[in-house]
Inverse folding.
């Protein structure tokens, strides 16, 4: 939806809204955005050089008690003051991922620039100040993805977590990279998920945030066993996804890369719909199926595509592909040609 109208944008999918200030007359855009920003997190004293014609849009995705937002907006400054905190303490933490422009946030005595690709923590129960600015011409926009989570849902002491306010945390390696990819996927493609997925997505979000914060607090052993298991499972799936083209990718290789025994890895997948070997095989076959249907790869031999995704043996690949899709790789490629019934 746009402007000041609220509404669900996806029938049967995740509850998502799109709001855009440009749907309103120019004088109404800044007041609308301030109200929207307060609703998305908490009241903040804000100002901007562009208040006469403030251009911004936000995609909001609700996962129950976890709320995700992807913002694009012109430069602004904001302050969360003690007075505003006394008026309304939402008892939430917010994780913010910088996507474009520059972000500078300060809390207590510390101030940090958060470059594109990195994350920071915002504690809405503590005073803080922030500056977001676009780069280039005056209409260049800053952009960020945020996750709002209840303080009570994180299995870490809130005072210790609050001590990470305004800290710079990497979004390109370790748990930060997993969290960044997770937030971008959901906010960028909410249509790929069902409404029934929301509770699970909320749990994964909380797990990845908890792992990131615990890593920075050197407090990972305090995470509940179930959360550590979920975090390991997420890391394993990410590792598999990034190494599908490695012909030596196997359950043993996955276990060794994560410093766990092979039997531990198999136990991790015991409650999943497929084994770790099945997950590797299915994802490789999906990549092959996609590439075989790609007209730009029409001249590439079938076996070259299979080898590209880790299948060394031609006969084994053909059997696995037929078992999965009911057609040989060559027959699938022909059926996927434009104009083929």
């Amino acid at each position: 939806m746009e402007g000041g109208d609220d509404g669900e944008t996806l029938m049967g999918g995740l509850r998502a809204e799109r709001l855009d200030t440009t749907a309103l007359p120019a004088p109404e855009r800044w007041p609308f955005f301030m109200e929207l920003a307060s609703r998305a997190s908490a009241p903040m004293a804000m100002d901007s050089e562009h208040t006469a014609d403030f251009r911004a849009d936000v995609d909001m995705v609700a996962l129950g008690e976890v709320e995700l937002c992807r913002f694009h907006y012109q430069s602004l400054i904001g302050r969360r003051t003690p007075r505003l905190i006394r008026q309304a303490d939402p008892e939430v933490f917010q994780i913010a991922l910088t996507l474009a422009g520059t972000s500078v946030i300060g809390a207590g005595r510390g101030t940090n620039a958060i470059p594109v690709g990195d994350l920071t923590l915002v504690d809405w129960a503590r005073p803080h100040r922030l500056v977001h600015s676009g780069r280039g011409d005056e209409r260049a926009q800053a952009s960020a993805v945020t996750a709002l989570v209840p303080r009570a849902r994180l299995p870490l002491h809130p005072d210790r977590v609050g001590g990470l306010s305004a800290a710079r945390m990497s979004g390109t390696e370790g748990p930060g990279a997993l969290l960044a990819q997770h937030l971008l996927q959901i906010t960028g493609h909410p249509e790929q998920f069902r409404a029934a997925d929301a509770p699970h997505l909320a749990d994964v979000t909380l797990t990845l945030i908890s792992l990131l914060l615990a890593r920075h607090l050197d407090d990972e052993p305090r995470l509940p066993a179930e959360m550590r298991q979920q975090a390991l499972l997420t890391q394993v799936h990410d590792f598999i996804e990034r190494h599908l083209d490695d012909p030596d990718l196997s359950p043993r290789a996955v276990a060794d890369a994560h410093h766990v025994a092979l039997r531990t890895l198999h136990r991790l997948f015991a409650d999943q719909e497929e084994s770790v070997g099945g997950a590797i095989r299915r994802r490789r076959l999906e990549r092959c199926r996609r590439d075989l249907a790609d007209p730009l790869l029409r001249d590439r031999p079938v076996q070259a595509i299979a080898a590209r995704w880790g299948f060394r043996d031609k006969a084994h690949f053909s059997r696995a592909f037929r078992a999965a899709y009911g057609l040989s790789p060559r027959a699938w490629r022909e059926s996927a040609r434009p104009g083929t019934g």
